[in-house]
Amino acid sequence: MTAIIKLASLETKMFFRDRVSVFWTFVFPVLIIWLFGAMFVGNEMSVLSFAEHFIPSWIGVNIVTTSFFTLGTLLAHYRDSGVLRRYQSTP
């Protein structure tokens, strides 16, 4: 279990060192929410405002796309570098 915790800690540090990943994960969604919020200000879709509909859905989409895109590239990198073989995840 300590190997998984160390790997998660290392991956978190590596993620925050990559400025492009941090931009696309944290800054870009905020910019998009601000842009669409400015475009649709004052438009009431129902009882809830635009932001109450859009922000939760955008957060969900951002989490799903970031996790799936990152998972694919990270697993391919791990396989090439032999990390999965050391953890006996692949033959």
In words, what does this structure look like?
The protein is an all-alpha fold and 91 residues long. The protein contains four helices and no strands. Helix 2 (19-39) packs antiparallel against helix 3.
Fill in the keyword field for this structure:
mainly alpha, elongated, 80% helix, 91 residues
Tally of individual domains? 1
Tell the overall outline: elongated
Low-pLDDT stretches are none
Structural class: mainly alpha
Number of helices: 4
Number of strands: 0
User: Over the alpha carbons, how many angstroms does the gyration radius reach?
Assistant: 18 Å
Order of helices and strands: HHHH
Sheet with most strands: none
Mean pLDDT reading: 80
- How big a fraction of the residues is strand? under 5%
Measured distance between first and last alpha carbons: 21 Å
Helix content: over 70%
What is this entry, summarized?
This protein has 91 residues and is an all-alpha fold. 80% of the residues lie in helices and 0% in strands. The chain has one domain.
